[in-house]
């Protein structure tokens, strides 16, 4: 099997195992905060174990405490201290859950992670019996509700019918399984899972400031400025890099899109909805996994669509679409526009090629030399992500590093610009002309004929 060069960068399975071993066994390295959390979790585990009854069967997912969050320096260095557990037995329990053999068939069963063990009564209380006022929205998996647990913690509760058999059922379990394995500041966390009567319920971290698409549409909050958009793009690239490179097995999200990016109060991003996620092949040497095409129109990697071969680079392609969306404000497909503008990436890449990236810039964004240059650079990165052949696309880690550089340049230019603001205010046309002329060559724009909607 042919190996893609990027996959060589991934750790071998033995290296991955070694990492897991160290992480799970090395509780002594935790910070005080985490030790405190570990202590309270231990207390919780003891009490939860006592609560096991004939009616409720607990699937214990294992105590996986975050040892630290992702820290990234301006130089683009990553420090991940991922999950760990304090005891081997917890790790074994977690592994058991991972296999899904431990989904027991009882009237109600639950799995929990971190915050508590959930019964259906807890969920009824939290969501006020799934009241309409608490309904957040509808998705492919069913209805989502906001809830408040007894300890005050806000959660999002995804509720779906159990009769969702076969394909959907496996997607539902896939979402839970994947979410339960990951822990990252920029990924929505799974708190618990519950089967009750004919329903499946998952409880995830509540992220209360709408999704990225809503922000770009102006439905939620104020207009996101370029600096905020850059931060959000960086957050997403970190989350996806983590999925691709730092989980036990590489995870391909498969549905990167603006509506799956949830925004925090501080305007940072958390990647959600792993319903389509699928664990990559266990064989670290495998270059792809063959699968039925899933994803959202407008974001789909054309090579994946044609070959059914899924790799991390399919996420990179979708991320390229998302970057274009963030810079232009437009949806990937704009049916009401003239024909030449309907596929946003084609239109934007044409503008870029012609040195007119600024014309593709979201009209809601404030114009400035720094902002114009940042938009152009992000579009240039998007161009690389959107390469028709996956070998030509950068890894997500590279995307993160490039975005860090763009953000750094943006800040520096913005600072120097503000000191010269008096001058710029007097000569706005000249300034705008200057920034419009930042041009670069795109070698093979004809390739974009192959970009599918
Ligand atoms: N953890 C969460 N916190 C807050 N809101 C959420 C959370 N998860 C989902 N939502 C919101 O609930 C709605 C439905 O989300 P869901 O993930 O089920 O479907 P979707 O992503 O909109 O669609 P699809 O399933 O087709 O991708 C969306 O508006 C989303 O913003």
From TrEMBL:
UniProt: ATP binding residues: 158
Keywords recorded for this protein, A-Z: ATP-binding, Kinase, Nucleotide-binding, Receptor, Serine/threonine-protein kinase, Transferase
Domain of life per record: Eukaryota
Molecular function as annotated in GO: ATP binding; protein serine/threonine kinase activity
Compositional bias annotation for Basic and acidic residues: 1-21
EC code(s) of this entry: 2.7.11.1
Domain Protein kinase: 130-405
InterPro entries hit by this protein: Kinase-like_dom_sf, Prot_kinase_dom, Protein_kinase_ATP_BS, Ser-Thr/Tyr_kinase_cat_dom, Ser/Thr_kinase_AS
Disordered: annotated span: 1-35
Family in the record: Belongs to the protein kinase superfamily.
Protein name: non-specific serine/threonine protein kinase
Organism for this UniProt entry: Quillaja saponaria (Soap bark tree)
């Amino acid at each position: 099997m042919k190996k893609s060069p990027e996959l060589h960068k991934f750790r071998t399975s033995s290296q991955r195992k070694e990492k897991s071993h160290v992480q799970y066994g090395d509780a002594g390295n935790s910070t005080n905060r985490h030790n405190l959390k570990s202590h309270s979790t231990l207390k919780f585990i003891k009490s939860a174990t006592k609560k096991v009854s004939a009616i409720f069967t607990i699937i214990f997912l294992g105590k996986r405490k975050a040892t630290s969050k992702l820290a990234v320096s301006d130089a683009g260095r990553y420090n991940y201290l991922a999950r760990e557990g304090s005891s081997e037995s917890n790790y074994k329990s977690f592994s058991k859950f991972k296999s899904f053999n431990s989904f027991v068939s009882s009237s109600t069963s639950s799995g929990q992670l971190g915050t508590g063990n959930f019964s259906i009564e807890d969920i009824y209380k939290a969501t006020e019996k799934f009241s309409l006022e608490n309904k957040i929205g509808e998705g492919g998996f069913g209805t989502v509700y906001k809830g408040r647990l007894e300890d005050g913690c806000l959660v999002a509760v995804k509720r779906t019918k159990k009769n969702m058999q076969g394909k959907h059922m496996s997607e539902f379990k896939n979402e839970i399984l994947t979410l339960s394995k990951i822990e990252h500041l920029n990924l929505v966390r799974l708190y618990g899972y519950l089967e009750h009567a004919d329903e499946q319920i998952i409880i995830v971290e509540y992220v209360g400031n709408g999704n990225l698409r809503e922000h770009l549409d102006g439905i939620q909050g104020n207009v996101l400025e370029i600096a905020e958009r850059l931060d959000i793009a960086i957050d997403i690239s970190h989350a996806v890099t983590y999925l691709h490179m730092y989980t036990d097995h590489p995870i391909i999200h498969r549905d990167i899109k603006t509506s799956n990016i949830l925004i925090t109060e501080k305007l940072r991003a958390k990647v959600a909805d792993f319903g389509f996620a699928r664990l990559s092949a266990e064989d670290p040497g495998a270059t792809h996994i063959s699968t039925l095409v899933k994803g959202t129109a407008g974001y789909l990697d054309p090579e994946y669509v044609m070959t059914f071969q899924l790799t991390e680079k399919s996420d990179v392609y979708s991320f390229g679409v998302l970057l274009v969306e963030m810079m232009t404000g437009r949806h990937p497909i704009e049916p009401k526009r003239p024909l030449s503008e309907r596929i946003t990436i084609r239109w934007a890449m044409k503008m870029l090629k012609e040195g007119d990236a600024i014309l593709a810039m979201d009209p809601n964004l404030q114009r400035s030399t720094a902002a114009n240059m940042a938009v152009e650079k992000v579009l240039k990165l998007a161009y690389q992500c959107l390469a028709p052949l996956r070998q030509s696309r950068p890894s997500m880690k590279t995307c993160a590093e490039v975005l860090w550089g763009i953000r750094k340049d943006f800040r520096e230019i913005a600072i120097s610009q503000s000191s010269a603001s008096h001058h710029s205010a007097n000569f706005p046309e000249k300034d705008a002309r200057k920034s419009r002329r930042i041009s670069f060559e795109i070698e093979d724009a004809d390739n974009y004929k192959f970009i599918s909607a």
